[in-house]
């Protein structure tokens, strides 16, 4: 049978992720009873493709795919590199075990019914989660549309789809740019909708933003060797292709995937995305008060003086104020800290600006999540005091820059370590 029919499907990933979460990430082998149970389930008439070989979804194969989630959880542990679809499932559901368990239960119910392969596929499409539509080939989308409400489908580009747009964005930006700048240029150039940009991973960041990072790092940096990343988080074209003026020329000059105009770096996972996800997960565990204290220390490191917390119930939307001195001039800076998972919208920006009214005209709004496009437009609206926005992505970079809970090990490429216990001190109010 054609090889494409043997690719690992979303429901198989759900079953393995459910098993991984229930086992708390412990290793398995072909002799593990749960692995054997999944193998038998995937060989049921509802899931086994007609003409599949005798080795289809055997114990060894299931154990190897399970190892992919071990690697995603901790890239230092041995485990198979996994597919982009499985990465999406991991990013979406790793902190939602109840939802994974419910999906796995529904999948097992389908296998338990006496059904043909075609009936099984139709039943799977009815419970297909939205994240899966991002990995469906265009010719397959119409089939899914027959069984899934269009409102649940958000068609998103893959990392590979974003390779050329990322190169074009870098060229427009003069050959270099921060991840956020490249992301915004790609969104504008490709015309992605608000709904597409709003689709987020578990930590609240736009899924397209995460995939732009993956395209820059995994494909353009490690596979093709045409981009590089500085300690300040600036992506740029390497000197060898700086003279080229189009994405086509750059791609033509690069070796095929797997090669590099540099020394081979190997097929690494996107470390930039990985450490930021871990850091944001730790920050989300802080209490609101602790997060405010962390922001206070960050602003001190950034140069603000005489910082005072004003937060608490009835804070009027302002969590603190400090003074920024620039040569002979000084002015107050107000800040608000939002330890949120949901996207911050225009109302929060307007409320913060309103709370500053009559007290000052400089404000910083910090969140662990992200800001909607409308919120960013509101922050720089003509005729109103501008509000500086720091989203989760930028917050991670700042904590790294100032060494707050993030350590960097110097080597040919930097290795970033999160110090989870560092943030415990912010849970204790100042004496």
Short description:
With about 425 residues, the protein is of the alpha+beta class. About 45% of the residues lie in helices and about 10% in strands.
Provide the descriptors you would attach to this structure in a database record:
431 residues; 3-stranded antiparallel beta sheet; alpha+beta; Trna Endonuclease, Chain: A, domain 1; 3 domains; 5-stranded mixed beta sheet; 10 strands
| CATH fold-level name of the largest domain | Trna Endonuclease, Chain: A, domain 1
How would you sum up the global shape? globular
Question: What percent of residues are in strands?
Answer: 5-15%
Total of domains: 3
SSE arrangement:
Blueprint: H1 10-22, H2 33-42, H3 59-73, H4 84-93, H5 97-112, H6 117-126, H7 138-145, H8 163-172, E1 176-178, H9 179-190, H10 194-198, H11 207-223, E2 227-229, E3 234-237, H12 247-253, H13 271-283, H14 288-301, E4 305-309, E5 320-326, E6 329-338, H15 346-356, E7 363-367, H16 373-379, E8 387-390, H17 392-401, E9 406-409, E10 415-418
Parallel strand pairs: 6-7, 7-8
Antiparallel strand pairs: 1-3, 2-3, 4-5, 5-6, 9-10
Helix pairs in contact: 1-3, 1-4, 1-5, 8-9, 8-12, 9-11, 15-16
């Amino acid at each position: 049978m054609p090889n494409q029919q043997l690719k690992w499907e979303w429901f198989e990933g759900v079953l393995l992720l459910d098993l991984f979460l229930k086992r708390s990430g412990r290793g398995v082998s072909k002799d593990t009873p749960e692995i054997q149970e999944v193998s038998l389930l995937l060989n049921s008439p509802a899931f086994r493709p007609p003409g599949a070989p005798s080795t289809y979804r055997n114990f060894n194969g299931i154990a190897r795919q399970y190892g992919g989630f071990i690697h995603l959880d901790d890239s230092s542990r041995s485990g198979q590199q996994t597919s982009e679809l499985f990465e999406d499932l991991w990013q979406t559901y790793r902190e939602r075990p109840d939802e994974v368990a419910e999906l796995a239960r529904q999948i097992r119910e389908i296998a338990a019914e006496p059904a043909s392969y075609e009936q099984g596929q139709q039943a799977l499409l009815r419970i297909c989660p939205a994240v899966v539509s991002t990995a469906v080939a265009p010719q397959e989308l119409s089939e899914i549309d027959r069984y899934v409400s269009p409102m649940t489908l958000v068609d998103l580009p893959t990392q590979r789809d974003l390779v050329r747009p990322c190169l074009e964005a870098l060229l427009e930006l003069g050959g270099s740019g921060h991840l956020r700048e490249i992301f915004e240029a790609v969104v504008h150039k490709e015309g992605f909708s608000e709904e597409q940009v709003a689709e987020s991973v578990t930590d609240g960041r736009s899924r397209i933003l995460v995939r732009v990072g993956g395209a820059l790092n995994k494909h353009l940096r490690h596979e093709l060797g045409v981009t590089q990343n500085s300690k300040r988080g600036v992506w740029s074209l390497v000197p060898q292709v700086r003279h080229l003026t189009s994405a086509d020329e750059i791609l033509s000059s690069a070796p095929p995937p797997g090669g590099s105009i540099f020394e081979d770096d190997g097929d690494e996972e996107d470390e930039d995305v990985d450490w930021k996800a871990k850091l944001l997960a730790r920050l989300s565990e802080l209490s609101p008060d602790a997060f405010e204290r962390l922001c206070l220390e960050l602003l001190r490191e950034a140069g603000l003086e005489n910082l005072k917390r004003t937060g608490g119930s009835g804070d009027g939307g302002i969590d603190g104020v400090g003074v920024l001195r620039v040569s002979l001039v000084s002015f107050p800076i107000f800040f608000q800290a939002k330890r949120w998972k949901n996207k911050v919208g225009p109302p929060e920006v307007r409320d913060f600006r309103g709370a500053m009214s009559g007290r000052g005209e400089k404000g910083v709004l910090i969140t662990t999540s992200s800001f909607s496009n409308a919120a960013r437009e509101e922050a720089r609206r003509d005729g109103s005091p501008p509000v500086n926005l720091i989203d989760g992505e930028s917050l991670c970079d700042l904590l790294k820059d100032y060494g707050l809970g993030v350590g960097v090990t110097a080597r040919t490429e930097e290795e970033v370590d999160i110090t989870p216990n560092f943030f415990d001190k912010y849970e204790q109010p100042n004496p």
